[in-house]
Amino acid sequence: MGYDIERFVGYVNEGLLCSICRDVLEDPLQAPCEHAFCTACIHGWLVHHSNCPEDRQVIDVSLLRPLYRYMKNDLNRLQLHCRNREYGCEMVCSLESIDRHERECEYSQIPCSNAGCTVQIERRNLDGHLAVCEYRSRECPNGCGYTILSAEDTQHNCVAELRTELELLRSEMICRVEEAKHEMESRLDSQRRHMVQKESILQNEIEELKSQMSRLMSDVRSLMAAERQHRQELEQAELEKREL
């Protein structure tokens, strides 16, 4: 939808009106036939139609283009009243700057920032409302540190609130201790399994070393027996040599 033409000061050129809603163009797009539309208006139209609402020429979303620069400049120069005029705002500014003004306008109706409060109030009166809002929160004046709503003042009991807070802290501490206990047990189990696995690997390595040592000793005994046999043969040969 476009800007209500009644908000504008002075004459508005017909070419700057949306061909669908007949208000002043908002976020405008132009068809090849040069008819201009608000973006929201033409997109909504093309959901159910495939032609221009003015001359019935066939158009498609892909054919829509931004407004010509000179038309865009004429549009931006138009002067209009703030939408909060009915609440007392007398600002008149260009269409190009109206959005920025209205985001900051002191007469804008904004919601109270306190959770649970449904009041809509002018921006300029917000601070005054927050000071008396029944949903405003503040720290207990008796020093217990509890944040209370104004509506709860009469029901607030520091001792009860502190006892409740203490119970919550105790429960949280118990939960954390249990979590730490489970985590430690899990780590110990993991380390125990790792040690058992390591012990098994070392035991296998020891058995392999024993086997290798046994084979080595067998080889040494065989070599010593061969050496004795060789020595005996030498002694026998030396004896035979003497006899000859």
Automatic annotation (TrEMBL):
Residues 18-56 form the RING-type domain. PANTHER family: RECEPTOR-ASSOCIATED FACTOR, PUTATIVE-RELATED, TNF RECEPTOR ASSOCIATED FACTOR. The keyword Cell inner membrane does not apply. One of its GO terms (molecular function) is zinc ion binding. Residues 101-144 form the TRAF-type domain. Residues 192-243 form a coiled coil. The keyword Metal-binding applies. The gene is Rnf41_0. This is RNF41 ligase. Pfam families: zf-C3HC4_2 (PF13923), zf-TRAF (PF02176). Keywords: Coiled coil, Ligase, Metal-binding, Zinc, Zinc-finger. One of its GO terms (biological process) is regulation of canonical NF-kappaB signal transduction. A zinc finger (TRAF-type) spans 101-144. InterPro entries: Znf_RING (IPR001841), Znf_RING/FYVE/PHD (IPR013083), Znf_RING_CS (IPR017907), Znf_TRAF (IPR001293).
